[in-house]
């Protein structure tokens, strides 16, 4: 899945968290967000799943296009979230599950995929095979 952002600006009240963010992450590439606390890393990740709505810019992700000059429809947001998942670090992971099990939990419960289907999807996304550990 490729991700493109162009001119993304995000605010919390009067505080601007993201300043004209433009980036392109082609399919198969790995992107690291690195920076100090308050730099906007989590805000950017929340924008990718439309947990936060930018005031301006465009987002292309998982075959979905969003132009934030208008508010996306609830259906468009649901469609995106069916294909884009987030696994947060630490407190939102189940400690009794492996990384792989944490990754396939939501597709099994939310999308109704079998364990094998969810595993195949996770492996395809991560670029791994059954012989590798996610």
Automatic annotation (TrEMBL):
Its EC number is 3.6.3.-. Pfam families: ABC_tran. InterPro entries: ABC_transporter-like_ATP-bd (IPR003439), MetN_ABC_transporter-like (IPR050086), P-loop_NTPase (IPR027417). Keywords: Amino-acid transport, ATP-binding, Cell membrane, Hydrolase, Membrane, Nucleotide-binding, Transport. GO terms for molecular function: ATP binding; ATP hydrolysis activity. It comes from the Bacteria. It is found in: Cell inner membrane. One of its GO terms (cellular component) is plasma membrane. It is an enzyme of class 3 (hydrolase). Residues 19-126 form the ABC transporter domain. It is a peripheral membrane protein. Its main location: membrane. GO terms for biological process: amino acid transport. SUPFAM superfamilies: P-loop containing nucleoside triphosphate hydrolases. PANTHER family: AMINO ACID IMPORT ATP-BINDING PROTEIN, ARGININE TRANSPORT ATP-BINDING PROTEIN ARTP. This is Arginine transport system ATP-binding protein. The gene is artP_1.
């Amino acid at each position: 899945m490729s991700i493109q952002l162009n001119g993304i600006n995000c605010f919390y009240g009067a505080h601007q968290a993201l300043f004209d963010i433009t980036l392109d992450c082609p399919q198969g590439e790995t992107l690291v967000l690195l920076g100090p606390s308050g730099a906007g890393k989590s805000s950017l990740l929340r924008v990718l799943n439309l947990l936060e709505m930018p005031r301006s810019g465009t987002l292309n992700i998982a075959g979905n296009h969003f132009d934030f000059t208008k508010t996306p429809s609830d259906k468009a947001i649901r469609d995106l979230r069916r294909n884009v998942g987030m696994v947060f670090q630490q407190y939102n992971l189940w400690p009794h599950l492996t990384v792989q099990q944490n990754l396939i939990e939501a597709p099994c419960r939310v999308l109704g995929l079998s364990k094998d289907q969810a595993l195949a999807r996770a492996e395809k996304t991560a670029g791994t095979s059954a012989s590798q550990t996610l």
